[in-house]
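Internal QA ticket QA-208
Title: Verify multi-chain structure generation after dependency bump
Assignee: T.L.

Test input:
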Amino acid sequence: MTGLATTTTTITYREAVREAIRDAMHRDDRVFLMGEDVGRYGGCYAVSKGLLEEFGPERIRDTPLSESAFVGAGIGAALGGMRPIIEVMTVNFSLLALDQIVNTAALYLHMSGGQFNVPLVIRMATGAGRQVAAQHSHSLEGWYAHIPGLKVVTPATVEDARWMLPTALEDPDPVIIFEHAGLYNSEGELPENGAPVDLDNALVRRPGSDVSLITYGGSLPKAMTAAAELAEEGISAEVLDLRALRPLDTGSILATVSSTHRVVVVDEGWKTAGFSAEIAACIAEEAIWELDAPIRRVCSEEVPMPYARHMEEATLPQPAEIVAAARELVGR
Amino acid sequence: MSDARHHLDLLQQMLRIRRFEERCAQLYQAEKIRGFLHLYIGEEAVAVGVISSLHSDDAVVATYREHGQALARGMDPGAVMAEMYGKVEGCSRGRGGSMHLFDASRRFFGGNAIVGGGLPLAVGLALADRIRGQQGVTAVFFGEGAVAEGEFHESMNLAALWDLPVLFCCENNLYAMGTALERSESQTRLTLKAASYEMPAWEVDGMDVLAVEDAARKAIESVRSGGGPHFLELQTFRFRAHSMFDPELYRSRGEVENWKKRDPLELFKNRLMTDGTLGEEGWEAMERQVAEEIDAAVAFAEAGTWEPVEELTRFVYSEVAHP
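Actual output:
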């Protein structure tokens, strides 16, 4: 980030992803998009709307509802010299492709003694908050982050939505991009002279000195809202956006902990064996003496996601809970 | 190559696989090879007949019972044996073992030990060839057990829907580990499953290397010339147990002995002796040559070295950016 004034345009997260795909397809004819309803339908979340007309059905490739086959075909095409972008409609359906992602994409390079890298990008929507009930609301990024051989990124801003994809496509190894479904309609300012961003570093989205809110993806806006509320009470919260879950930027985590000495981890996943536990363990192992208070986690209730709105809201992390946790840590 | 020389070459390839596998079994008893070991004895005609019909720039995707495919593809027996020893000189640096043989230079894409898992991969390799305007064919091997997997049906459909250059090679050895075909499939005519995807599908005597080669050549020619994917059901039998841990409680001794009467190596050897292509001396010379190759492979594996533990974390991710 530079301090220079730049021209920006207001853009939705959805448009930012679409622009990223379009630009990548113009730049490299090895790139193609493949998935369910990416073509004629225009994408379940309308991300790829208009791309079929622009690039044709060979490069905007509608697939049958065969997650395992088209994810595996993406792996094969990547091994065969292409740079596929596979869209799995949502993380919920990716469970039907777990074999290919975990047993093939993640393992091929190591298992072949370095002979076969898999330059594949998989995009999928994740998360809850739209009253689509238990089977369409999972937040399983942490599962994938468990697997050596995969890279897992969670763009939370329009800039990352626009500029993580080209970096992921340059990567010689499989990268999974999790797009929180609740973010597609969000708007942000995108610098016009933007450039590809790294997939390795967490970023402080709001500096602060009293408490660190460590989060990623769809929970970032909630953490930012909470930080603003805390500021009104005179509590200075630092918001760290992890951006990537694997590799995890432990240096930035330890830096914010060492600066504020209090941590709230905000994660839409469940607590038990969840990604928030990994962050807490990382802090406990490396920086426990920096802490002035116990680590707090604000995560989803340990229930399948209910449909009714009030019940769903009660299940998900909310800014008020983040505020309450932060207040408790600073002793107010 | 004249017919006679070609036939002798096929025989030698089958013999090489047979003797290689027999040596593997011994080396397993001697604890030189560990882990899972699945032998190809009895099925040699399948790999040899199909793979000898491919071009060098075609792709091969195989299963965990893939020593035969690897050798038929021309991989160095020493590198394959060293892999089973777990040595760094192995074809996968000792990272894969028996079930995960790889060779990028021969477009040999493993060595897949999840039943059905290689099929989507083959579809993707064929898709890449198609998009890039290459004339390659991807041959994918799998057992009849794989037809019960969703990945089989998804991949067959996708390949047929998109007319991709895939040769599906179903090695029907009648038993998925210990489960007989009729105990796992409502429809045991496997070609009918392929036909339901509008795919040409042939039943082939997998114990007759010339029958396999003939079917493979015709299918590959059709696939290469734009005829879409083809399906071969190669009817064969494994003479040994599923793996080294299998007491074979699920099939009778008589059934195994009956199939051994159609030993693909013996059948073809006798045929070449009958038609005068091969004499006793020629056979003995072939045996000697193969024995020397396998001795050399074992010596190579024995002399191999262990990958330094410091290299354990190499190749989780790529070390250089690929252009």
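Spot checks passed. The interface with chain B takes residues 32, 58, 63-64, 66, 68-82, 84, 99-100, 103-104, 108-117, 119, 148-149, 151, 170, 172-173 of chain A (CB under 8 Å).
Status: verified.
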